[in-house]
Structures are given as structure tokens and as C-alpha cells.
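Technical annex B. To support the medicinal chemistry partners, we prepared a structural model of the target in complex with 5-amino-5-deoxy-1-O-phosphono-D-mannitol, based solely on the information shown next.
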Amino acid sequence: EKGGYDWFMRKEIFEQPKAVADTLLGRYDADGALTLDEIRISAAELRRIDKIVIIACGTAFYSGLVAKYAIEHWTRIPCEVELASEFRYRDPIVGPTTLVVAISQSGETADTLMAIRHAREQRARVLAICNTNGSTIPRESDAVIYTHAGPEIGVASTKGFLTQLVACYLLGLYLAQVRGTKFGDEIALVMEELAAVPAAISGLLTEMDPVLKLAADFADERVVLFLGRHVGYPVALEGALKLKELAYIHAEGFAAGELKHGPIALIEDDLPVFVVVPPQGRDMLHDKVVSNIQEIRARGARTIVLAEADDHEVDAFADVLIRLPKVSTLLQPLVATVPLQVFACELATRKGHDVDQPRNLAKSVTVE
Ligand code: M6R
């Protein structure tokens, strides 16, 4: 059932183009309108929402961090993202005009479930983004957007994450449509770009040689850092989590803008640092991240740079270059995450770890 792959995880990484396409399927009609059937919260009510709170755990939480950038940009609704395990024991400010978005691949994560119960007690409206039909979290929510990733067996989330991103983008665009903060043609542009993502991921997956080669050199590494900015920051966090889970390496993700506030003290000779570079030209943060690469390299770091295919500004400062397809900034996590998944999977395989069942972890965390 692994379809010729050594691990479910690897199979699931390669299923991502289809998972993304399936999650987009049937949600955008020929007249240029988004229809999210399962939303079940009326347009009038969605227009009254004055705050969004996203709650989730682990990788799903990182998809929520990406969602915040997109949702606030497209809808102008303030959006917070919180770990479900923190939210459930706080006294959060939510009410009938708050939309709580619970993101969970399994739909059974105990902390996320308790967090939505906590939110509903305060009469918040709850929308689930979930991959598992009929699971508990969507059943206890007012509305649901299903991701159509198909079953995810590997403990490390891969296609679950990418499809959560897609669902978050769809939600953001839908809210923008309903509330009139974006016009049809602007929504159409993003939808067009999203529609091209599956092919972009397929192409990227055929160019993983530098990533596989890198994994072969990593057997003895004990510490790895990941840097990103804007939506690249959650990508850095996700890259680090994958390495922790699968390769049992101490890995940390940082917002590149925070370097001087502490993390740069960690940089020493030969320390491997992955850097996610925002798209070139169209993005003011690009140059700032390129400067960060120079700064850490001057202090001895080994830089592994993920940058767009024709971004040559990074060439001189990259010890290893991983090329990404061109997409707009907000959508870049859909492609930038993929090499990091492949890297963690490959490294763990080389270390002889059980990639699908990493030590101490369970696929769905149904206890706290
Ligand atoms: O099923 P969920 O999406 O609610 O699971 C949340 C986390 O437990 C999950 O994403 C976990 O962090 C993964 N093992 C990450 O690869």
C-alpha cells in the first residue's frame, strides 16, 4: 500500500500535487465565485465577524501562522493564531462576533477539541479545517472546510500541511469576497496562481538532487537552524519541526529579523543554517534576507539557501542552493516547504530511523 515507496511519508510527499489540486477542486466556479458549501455560516454573519482566532497544534499551528498573513492582508479582519494547548487554559476574549478557526488534520487532537469547546462556551462561531471526514472536531464545529489530502499515515505531516494552507487561502479569499475587501479580478488572480501550484510542486519534486545530496552529508550534525521572514518564518518553523521529529536533531526556526536580538550568537563555524528567501523583485523583504545570509556567513555559518530559480543575488552567499518555482510571496510556503520535507525524510532514512513512526510520537494526539 506504500505504492512502491519505502515510507508512507515519501509517498505522501509525492502525492502533494494531487492533494493540493483536489483541495482546490470544485470550489471556484466559471463565473469567478468561490463557493465553500460546507461553510454553513451565513454571509450576513460572516460580515459581522470582527476577529479571527486560529487554534491548532504542531504543524497545523504553522499553517495557521501562514494564514494570518494572507487573511489579514485580504480581509483586514484582525487575526490571531494560538496554540490550542495554551488557548484552552486561558481566559481568551472571544464572543459571537469572533470566528474561531480550528485546524486539524486528524480532527481528533485533544487540545484542539478542548479549545473549540472552550470557544463555543463563549458563543464564538467555530470553523474547522480538517482532513478527516466525520471526525470529532468538524462534528463539534459550526462549519468545516475539508482538505482533500486523502489519508495521511506517516506521523510527520506533509500533504496535510500543504492542503491546510490551501484551505486557509480559500477561507481568506472567501471572506474577502463576502465582505467585499477584494474584487473578483483580484480573487481570480490568486485562484489562477493556486491552480498552477500542483504543476509547480511536481516540477520541484523532480529537482531534489541537491537536497538528497545534502542529506548524505548531514549524518553527524547535531544542531541545525532555519531562518525565514514573513510567511517564510512559519516555513522555517516547519522545517525545524520535521528535523526534530524525524532525524532527532536539535533544530530551531527563527524569524530572520530576530537574528540580532539573540540567535546570531549561536552562529559558529560550519553551523548549518537553512534560509528561506522571499521572491525577488516584487518583495521588499528579499534584500533584507539576502543581507541576513551575508551576516551569518561572515560568522562562519554553512548556508543552505532556498531561493527562486532565477534569483542570482543569493548565488555568491550560498554554500548549497535549493531552487524554488516562482510564486507570489503569500503562496510561497506551498513550494518552499517541500524540499524541507524531502530533506528530513531522506536524512532520517539514512540515519536508519523509522520515518513513519518516529520515536515517542503518535499520529493523533488524543490525550493532552
Ligand atoms: O491532527 P492534527 O493536525 O490536529 O495534529 C496536530 C499535530 O499533532 C501534528 O501536526 C504534529 O505536529 C505532526 N506530527 C507534525 O508533523
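Notes passed to the chemistry partners:
The radius of gyration is 20 Å.
The chain has a mean pLDDT of 96.
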